[in-house]
Fold this protein.
Amino acid sequence: MATTNPLQFIQQVRAEVSKIVWPTRREVLLTTVMVFIMAALTAVFFALVDILIRSGLQGLLNLFG
């Protein structure tokens, strides 16, 4: 494995960093909002599933209890 000196390493890192395409502020804002919306929808979905399972089990227990 070839070794490089620290100066060459820093130059290579800077060259690679310059190739990165950074997102715009608008893209970051939109994706952040989408994450919050999806998290809220997921929370509502699991809350509804929990309520349905709980009411089903309570009904089943009342039927046999």
